[in-house]
Design goal:
Blueprint lengths: L19 H8 L3 E4 L2 H12 L7 E2 L2 H10 L14 E3 L1 H4 L7 E5 L5 E12 L2 H9 L7 H7 L4 E9 L15 H10 L5 E4 L7 H11 L4 E4 L13 H15 L5 E3 L10 H14 L4 E3 L6 H12 L3 H4 L2 E3 L5 E3 L4 E3 L11 E2 L3 H9 L11 H15 L2
Parallel strand pairs: 1-4, 7-8, 7-10, 8-9, 10-11
Antiparallel strand pairs: 2-6, 3-6, 4-5, 5-6, 12-13, 12-14
Bound molecules: zinc ion.
Length: about 375
Amino acid sequence: MSQLPHGGVLINRYTDPSLADSLTERCGRLKSWQLSDSELCDLEMIASGAYSPLTGFMGRSDFKAVLDNHRLSKGLPWTVPIHITVPVSFASSIRSSEEIALLDEFRKPVAILSVSDIFEYNALEYAHKVFKTTDVKHPGVSALYAMEPRMLAGEVTVLRRRSHRTFNRYRLEPSEIRDLIQDRKWRTTAGFASVETVHRREEYQIKCVMETVDGLLMHPFVGKAAPGEIDPEVRMKCIEALVDGYFAKDRVLLAALPGRPRAMGGREAVFQAIVHKNFGCTHFIAGSDYTAQERSEARDLISRFEAKELGITPMFVDDAFYCKACGTMATERTCPHTGVGRLSFSGAAIQDLLRKAKPLPLECTRAEIGLIMLEAVRDAKKP
Ligand SMILES: [Zn+2]
């Protein structure tokens, strides 16, 4: 039996293609609002059903329930607020039940929002409940403080699939991934979403889980890189090389995940698990880059839900390292050797080696990936 979407039905908010042109024309007569990059990614995820059961952007009652109870107002587990924010001047020009044209980065209409709710939110409360800090040094909090002060909620009707410049062969929507999982007859599938390059550490964590399931959805985020992060195109090249060279072909699907992580810790682990349930996964490899404390917070949050209401199994694998004495990758759970024989490579250490044009050790990453990353650093330095 295939995995049921969250809430039981895979949502589809695309309009019938035969109506797309007339709806586009109608957009020209409506008030319009241009979405931010992350709001456009959310719109894409709502349209395709990746955020099932959401049919649009959250109203006040869902927003409050998510913040307070980690659930939607009707009780279904949901941990991350999904919203559009607008300035007070725009919000006060809109009536509830009015239709608004939502525009993309080129100011082209992409969807119609049927406004159900316009409301003010408290940014400090949001920060405290979601990020557990109000400190602006936290990347999620600083993004939150930069948001407009009103939320605009309502169902969306999306005109057509978003066109992208990059990763088109990997942009698979939940229904397409579900078909591929079914074709392959996988009864269990683990999802893995990462904004990092997959090095030996993550490869080991993924493969520990793969020993227990039928298939893997390798699902790197492809949203714009933050300063200091690796270019998503370079990262995809690394992951292609890894999958090509080191994974059993009939056990892995590679696809692009719109957007980027939100630095929401345990809430994010549960949210990504739910999103991957909608993509047809039965398991989710959570928090590969989490600290031990973040992992324990995520486990605490997950334990508040009954297994059947979550409907997907989040899998946590401890932080892995290369142990010289074991002669293999290992974790605290498996390796008895402590001290110098254990090799771990932080993101900063990897960046440092790359900056000095030094090859990454094979205990850190596969040779092919090390070369791709070195080349990318070299290319970036070229005038
Ligand atoms: Zn060892």
